[in-house]
Amino acid sequence: MRYNKIMKLSPRVKIGLIIVLLIALFIIVNLTSFSKEIKNFFYLISSPIQKTLWRAGDNLSDFFEAISEIEKLKKGAEELLLKNQALTAENARLKELKKENEVLREALEIGLEKEFKLLLAEVTGKDIFQDALLINKGSKDGILKDFPVITQQKALIGRCGEVYENFSKVILISNKESSFDAKISDSDIQGLVKGEGNLKIFLDLVPKEKEINEGAIIVTTALGGIFPEGLLVGEIKKVLKSDIQPWQEAEIKPAFDVKEMETLFIITDY
Amino acid sequence: MKKILILIPFLYILTLSQTSFLIHFNVFLKGGFWGWALNLILIAVILITVLEKPEKNSGIFLGVCGGFFLDIFSENFIGFHILIFLGLSLFIKFILRKYVR
After folding, report:
1. Contact by Cβ (8 Å): A151, A264
2. What ipTM did this prediction achieve?
3. How would you class A158 by CB atoms within 10 Å of its CB: exposed for 0-12, middle for 13-18, buried for 19 or more?
4. Which of A7-11, A190-194, B38-42 has the highest mean pLDDT?
5. Cβ separation A29–B17 shorter than 8 A
6. What span, in angstroms and rounded, lies between the C-alpha atoms of A115 and A100?
7. pTM tops 0.80
8. pLDDT tens digits for A184-239?
9. Which residues of A touch B23 (CB under 8 A)?
10. How many CB pairs under 8 A join A and B?
11. Hey, which residues 21-40 in chain B have their CB within 8 Å of chain A?
């Protein structure tokens, strides 16, 4: 009887009734743990397919993403390359400044600036076979011919030869054209330091009766007026005595290493 | 009935594809129109409802099924998509029955 009554209801009422019943069902399902059980059941039976689909989707989307990102990556790589180049250049410049700073600091510690008026120069070329160097300071910077050139450790390198507008040639003390007066430190033994070429220096014209010890330090004297007094020349390496000659000679080991030389000082006034 | 039995597994597979496979492309297309609109169940329910004969009700039933599957695999409570799809398929049926044919 009741069933017949329901069947006689209009379709709109039927639909409304179904919707109300459904809502009531959903409320009951969601308020109880039943919804969790339903979801868990479906997750359980679907997980193998889901895993496969997830992996496939992941790979495929990565592939498409990579294609779309190529242009962006290319642009990014170019930008990074440019940035890298700029940083490398800046790094190199900072390294140079650091080196220059260290040299100046060392010179300050020795107190070179109190004794002489100095000008820092960088070596731009080396001609070891001719015992000469090229430095980046010239007449524009106030350099004149015969200005003494030293290291930050106060070791004599040579003197300015040819002076150009922006560059100067430094004639090393080992150059064949170079000769000047020097003495053995803490003694009255004097002699003439001569360059023999190929970075070799000799102490000549030392009277035979004077005793020269190997390892003795040679410094410049004010005699001759080419170099200021007390600059380090080197140390005695080997004493050469000959019965025929009235003088004795000694080979000097220079106080500088031309291969390692990058910065040096020019004495502009002393 | 046969059509419903075939289309229920189809909707199930479609839901799994939607939630496990196409979700990657939704993320990929994030912010775009397709990233939001690529809801295959919704498209399938609309197509089934529109393309079947107006007097038949399998579109409504499949809308409920599709909504149920989406509810299972989404974070919403059970009934959220069911009610939306049911309402949508009923509305399409109403339009088709009253104004189109």
Report:
1. yes
2. 0.81
3. buried
4. A190-194
5. no
6. 20
7. no
8. 888 888 899 999 888 889 988 888 888 888 888 899 988 878 888 888 899 998 88
9. 57
10. 61
11. 21-25, 27-28
